[in-house]
């Protein structure tokens, strides 16, 4: 198996594409890019200000999909939940189609 093929089957790259397919999830990622470490309440307020009318439960469901894809990390501190952006799955996709060779392919 080549480096690209191994990457295609590692860490569910398809989950990243599924997560990015929804406009609300992309808006969540945009908000977290602007300011990572937001609470669910803060995120909902910011999304509402941009025209998204998702409920708290709907945003939680979107965050679950993003978390499964590895694009967000949810951490708890006391009774608060903070959401952080993790772009490493996107870097893995970029590396898959980057021009060049993989060390083990040579």
Automatic annotation (TrEMBL):
<protein>
    <submittedName>
        <fullName>Transcriptional regulator</fullName>
    </submittedName>
</protein>
<dbReference type="InterPro" id="IPR036390">
    <property type="entry name" value="WH_DNA-bd_sf"/>
</dbReference>
<keyword id="KW-0805">Transcription regulation</keyword>
<dbReference type="InterPro" id="IPR036388">
    <property type="entry name" value="WH-like_DNA-bd_sf"/>
</dbReference>
<keyword id="KW-0804">Transcription</keyword>
<keyword id="KW-0238">DNA-binding</keyword>
<dbReference type="Pfam" id="PF12840">
    <property type="entry name" value="HTH_20"/>
</dbReference>
<dbReference type="InterPro" id="IPR001845">
    <property type="entry name" value="HTH_ArsR_DNA-bd_dom"/>
</dbReference>
<dbReference type="InterPro" id="IPR011991">
    <property type="entry name" value="ArsR-like_HTH"/>
</dbReference>
<dbReference type="InterPro" id="IPR051081">
    <property type="entry name" value="HTH_MetalResp_TranReg"/>
</dbReference>
<feature type="domain" description="HTH arsR-type">
    <location>
        <begin position="7"/>
        <end position="105"/>
    </location>
</feature>
């Amino acid at each position: 198996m080549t480096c690209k093929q191994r990457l295609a089957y590692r860490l569910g790259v398809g989950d990243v594409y599924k997560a990015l397919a929804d406009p609300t999830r992309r808006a969540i990622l945009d908000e977290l890019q602007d300011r990572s470490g937001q609470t669910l309440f803060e995120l909902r307020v910011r999304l509402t200000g941009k025209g998204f009318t998702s409920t708290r439960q709907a945003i939680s469901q979107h965050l679950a999909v993003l978390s499964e894809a590895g694009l967000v990390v949810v951490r708890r501190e006391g009774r608060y939940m903070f959401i952080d952006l993790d772009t490493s799955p996107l870097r893995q996709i970029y590396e898959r189609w980057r021009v060049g060779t993989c060390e083990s392919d040579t």
